Amino acid sequence: MYRNGVVTTVTLNAALDKVYTVPQYALDRVHRIGSAVTVPGGKGINAARVLRALSVPVRVAAFVAGHTGRQLLDLLQAEGIAADPVAAAAGETRLAITVLDPVASTQTELIEAGPCIAGDELAAMRRKVETLARESAWVVFSGSLPEGCPAGTYAELIQLAKAQGARTALDASGAALAAGLAGRPDLVKPNADEAAQFAGMPITSPDTAIFAASMLVQAGAGLAVVSLGAEGALAATREAVYRITIPHVRIVSPLGSGDAMVAGLVAASLQHEGDLPAILKHGAACGTAAALHKMAGVVTPADVDALERQIKVQLISH
């Protein structure tokens, strides 16, 4: 394992994902599940799955708790993803249930709360991040904060990782995103709703997305990428703004597409240092490729390559 190619993903609120496919799903009815998938989940774990598919050495740091946490670790091992967990003494790792209706093209999510993290457990995670960052090119911080972790947790962990020489990415929302920007992450990647919440205004046009991305940069991000679903994405640095246009695809599930985009951006930065258009194109290709699968964090290199050839990155302002 060599530092320049190792990525650590940090998932403070990991989950065990269960994805049910239920044609003609309806309330107040009994449904017998014909197709079910159970996988380790949480945004950072989804990103790790994509990085492994891209042949990038990756490891997962996460809080785990109870029987569900042990099952999550067993499933990570079965996938060949290295895990370096911190055990929470109380509660259970949460379940995240997604019901996909392929007839109505709907996606319903039922997400439990995670365990409450004690002070000594958070301190153990600080030490772990500091240690792993010494051997990592990137540390990716993703997802919601569990109870017991204050809003500034990401900022503190980002600063610890940066002090060890790693670059950092933050994929969060709400107070966790706003407070996390104080750590000055190298990359943030909110979706349109998350960017709108941060900016305090709806994302109704490319101009408003540019404004939100620029606000994220002013608040501390080195690169802000705002994903816009089928409309592609916008990216901003202090020097330039880019528009990313993606091809039309038949979406199976958008679940985890944002996580895949983060993974693609980080992976491309290891190969295309300084070539931001190439990095953005690869990130968008991974995010789009993930929408072709019902399980979060699944991409194939063939899909990524094919989509990447169809994605356009346009410099729209300096």
Automatic annotation (TrEMBL):
Annotated ranges, domain Carbohydrate kinase PfkB: 24-297
UniProt pathway annotation: Carbohydrate metabolism; D-tagatose 6-phosphate degradation; D-glyceraldehyde 3-phosphate and glycerone phosphate from D-tagatose 6-phosphate: step 1/2
Keywords for the protein's UniProt record, in alphabetical order: ATP-binding, Kinase, Lactose metabolism, Nucleotide-binding, Transferase
Gene3D superfamilies for the chain: 3.40.1190.20
One MF term in the entry's GO annotations: phosphofructokinase activity
InterPro entries, A to Z: Carboh/pur_kinase_PfkB_CS, PfkB_dom, Ribokinase-like, Tagatose/fructose_Pkinase
GO cellular component assignments: cytosol
Reaction equations catalysed: D-tagatofuranose 6-phosphate + ATP = D-tagatofuranose 1,6-bisphosphate + ADP + H(+)
GO BP annotations, alphabetical order: carbohydrate catabolic process; lactose metabolic process; small molecule metabolic process
TM region positions: none
Enzyme Commission code(s) on record: 2.7.1.144
Family recorded in the similarity comment: Belongs to the carbohydrate kinase PfkB family. LacC subfamily.
The protein, known as: Tagatose-6-phosphate kinase
Organism: Paenibacillus urinalis
